[in-house]
Amino acid sequence: MLNLSDYNDKKVRVFLHDGSTFEGYSTHNSVEYSFSEFGVDSECLQICDYLIREEEIERIELIEALPSVRSTEEELAMIFSVRRSFSEHLKRWEDNELPDQYDLNCFEYSAQPSQEEFERALDLQRERGDTFIKLVGDVPLADDFGLSSGVRLTMQLSGGTECRNVNDKVEIKTPRYKDLKETALKHFGPVRGEDFAARNADHLYEYLGCRGAYLGEKLVGAYYFYTSGGYTCVDGLIVDQDFRRRHIAAALLKHASEEAAGNVVFLHADQDSVAKKVFEKLGFREVGRRYEYLSAEIGSLTAKRKPSG
Length: 309
What we know:
This protein is of the alpha+beta class. It has 8 helices and 16 strands. The protein has helices spanning 31-38, 69-80, 115-128, 177-192, 194-207, 248-259, 274-281, 298-305; strands at 11-16, 21-29, 44-47, 50-53, 57-62, 82-85, 90-94, 106-109, 133-137, 148-157, 171-173, 209-215, 218-228, 231-239, 264-270, 284-295.
């Protein structure tokens, strides 16, 4: 008999009787708590927003966190998103708090998905009311289903940052929330919408550490960070567009390296981005890559895939 309390605050893989699986960090909810909070008269495990009743569970596996860049990346993703089984070659990452965030609402492939699997994935997106679909994996796809492709690099710092030029007038500290939100609205609002930019800022500020670069009272740059198992991931690095070319990114990354206190520091960049070249100049080197395939307009995509006749 399962003792669900043994899995409280543990990284687990939960197998259900119907054949589906969930992966993520679990919280144990007693019968009393489940009933008072959710109206569910059962002992449960909760993974992100998903409530899993005891009677639904076939078995549970603990997932050991390996001291590696990839395991830290996965742990960071699991703070916001849960991974579920979907088909033979696809797993589904779902973030219900930000359902319009395709970085954490995507399909991870272990091998080339079939056309049938891809069509099933499209059907799910349509049912959810989503306009996008994203596939991610460790190797390139032989058939990309007409999606736009890209490569996301993991870049790791060897030693300290090679900062020849650092703006010594910058003060690095935990940013004021209102400053961080204003920055997010300024830079991401026009691209993703102000509602999304505000919710995403709330999301990240609540769960991750954050540092900001100030010139006087002005927030001119910031990054989020997550540390686990001897690794520190620097994410969401941004410099105010009105203050670029003033060595602010170098100051932020130098601070991140020093604050990591011996941890391995890594971050992410698109393969063909300007940011990648900046990171290379500061001493970051590629240690891994993920292949990404995206369509932000699945209506036009499905029209192209319709059989003729």
